[in-house]
Amino acid sequence: MNATTMTMRFVLGLLAAAALGLGCSVLEPSWEGSVGAVLRYNKDTRALRVDRVPPEGKAAAAGLKPGDQIVAVDGKTVDQMTLDEILTALRGPVGTTAKLTVIRDTKTLEITIERSPFAEGGSGTQPAPAPKKEGKKEGGDKDEK
C-alpha cells in the first residue's frame, strides 16, 4: 500500500467517523484546563477557599475574588465531595464552563467560569504556598541597600 492510498483511507475513516457522530480527537482536539485560580482546601472542615486569582485570567474576568468560599461546583456541594472529586469537577476541556456557588461576605453568588489551559509549569493542582513567616530575612540580618 502506498502513501497516497494510506492517506486516502485515513481521510475516509475520519469522514466516516464524523458522519456517524463518533467524534475524533484529530478533528476536535481537547486540551485539559481548569478555572484558573489558586485554591486552598481544608481537609478538616472540607472548606474550599480562593487564595489567589490571576488578574489576567478567566476567573478574574468572571468575578471570582480571593477570600471567596466555594460551596458548590456545578451544583454539587464541596463538603460532600472528596478532594479528587473537587479537582475533577474543576477541570475539564478548555472552553467548557464550571458553575461555582460562592459565599462572599454574607452573599451567595453564582459564578460561571470558562475553563482555560493550565498555566505553564502548572498542573491545576498546585497548592497555594504557605504564608511567609515574619521575622528574619533570608540571607541573614543584613539590610539590602
Question: Which SSEs are present, and which pair or pack?
Answer:
Blueprint: H1 3-19, E1 32-34, E2 38-42, E3 47-52, H2 58-62, E4 69-73, E5 76-77, H3 83-90, E6 92-93, E7 97-104, E8 107-114, E9 116-117
Antiparallel strand pairs: 1-6, 1-9, 2-3, 3-4, 4-5, 4-7, 7-8
What do you see in this structure?
The chain has 145 residues and is of the alpha+beta class. The chain has a domain at 33-117: PDZ domain (Pdz3 Domain). Helices cover 21% and strands 28% of the residues. The chain contains three helices and nine strands. The protein has helices spanning 3-19, 58-62, 83-90; strands at 32-34, 38-42, 47-52, 69-73, 76-77, 92-93, 97-104, 107-114, 116-117. Strands 2, 3, 4, 5, 7 and 8 form a six-stranded antiparallel β-sheet that branches. A three-stranded antiparallel β-sheet has the order 6-1-9. A hairpin with a 2-residue loop joins strand 7 and strand 8 (107-114). The longest helix is centred in the N-terminal third of the chain and has 17 residues, at 3-19. Mean pLDDT is 76; it is low at 21-28, 121-133 and 136-145.
